Amino acid sequence: MAKLKDVLRPLGENEFWVIGESLNVIGKEIGKAFKERDPKPIQREALFQKEKGVDLIDINLGPAKKDGHELMPWVVETVQEVVDDIPLVLDTSNIDAIAAALPKCKMPTMINSIMVRPARYEKMVPLAAEHGSDFCALMWGPDGLPRDENERAALLVELMTVANEAGIENDQMWVDGIVTPVNIQQPQAIALMNFMDMLPEIMPGAMSTCGVSNISSGVPDNLRHVLNLTFTVMLNLHGMISFIADCRDDVTMDLARGKRPDIVNAIKQTMEGNQPDMASLSQELQHYVKSTNVILGKTLFSDSWLDV
C-alpha cells in the first residue's frame, strides 16, 4: 500500500507542501453546504484548490457529533467526484466519522489528528493501522499544551511507541508541535522551533505539519498576514515540511514552491544574527525582518511592531 508521502510532489530546498484549509465547517458557504448536503459549493472549492496547486485538501467538520459518521463519507465522495488525484485530510474529532470515511478514500489519506491522550490514541491508532493511513500526531497531552520542547518530545515518544507497535512507521506520522499566539505566549514559538530541531533525532523519518495561522490569533487582521508568512518560513527553515494554509494567499503558494528566495534569505539572515541592512530592503522585506525579531523575542510584541 502506498504511503501518503509517495504520492506527493518532491520537495526542493526551502519548499513545503500546502494543505488547503478552506473546506471547513466554520466557513459560511461551506458550512451551509455541509448542513444542506449541497455538493456544488464543496466541489467548486475543491476544484479551486486544485487550480491553486494545493498538495492535500483538508476536510474539516469540527466536532460533527450528530451526523459526522454520515457526513464525512458523503463529503469525501462529493470531493472525489471532481478531484480524485489530490490526497485528503480527514479533520474531525468524531472518530466514527473518520472510520466511516476512510474506506471511501481513493488515495493515501491523513487523519487529523491524534492527541497524546490514551482515550484518543487507543482507539485511533488501530484505525490508522487498519487502513494504512497516515495521521497527524498532535502534541496535546493529558495536561493540555506542553510547556516547552522537552515536554513535546516526551509526548512524541509516547505516541510514537504506540504507533510503531501497531505497525505504523515514522514516515506515516505528521508531527504537529502546536503553534500558539505570539501575543500571548511568545516563548512558545521558540520552543516549537527547538522541538523541530530535535525531531530528526527523536523520530527519524518523521513528517511534520501545523496550523501556522495560530501564531497571529488575536492580532489585528491587517497584521496577521505578514506574521503568518514569517513564521511559515522560520518553521520551514527548522524542518517543517507542510502547513495547513489558505491557498488564496499567493505568497504562501509561491513560497511553497521555492519562488520567493528573497523572503527566505531575509528571514534566514535575521534568524542567524546577520540581519540585512534595512535601508537596502523593500518595505515588504523590512516587514518580514521586523516580524522575525518579534517572534524570536528580540523585539517586544505590540500591535505597532512594523512601525518601530
Automatic annotation (TrEMBL):
Q: Which PROSITE patterns match?
A: PTERIN_BINDING (PS50972)
Q: Which SUPFAM superfamilies match?
A: Dihydropteroate synthetase-like
Q: Which organism is it from?
A: Desulfonema limicola
Q: Where does the secretion signal sit in this chain?
A: none
Q: Which UniProt keywords apply?
A: Methyltransferase, Transferase
Give the family this protein belongs to, as stated in its UniProt record.
Answer: Belongs to the vitamin-B12 dependent methionine synthase family.
For this protein, the record's InterPro entries field holds:
Dihydropteroate_synth-like_sf, Met_Synthase/Corrinoid, Pterin-binding_dom
Gene Ontology biological-process entries: methylation; pteridine-containing compound metabolic process
Q: What is this protein called?
A: Pterin-binding domain-containing protein
Give an example GO cellular component term for this record. cytosol
Pterin-binding domain location? 16-265
Query: What would you give as a GO molecular function for this chain, any one?
Result: methionine synthase activity
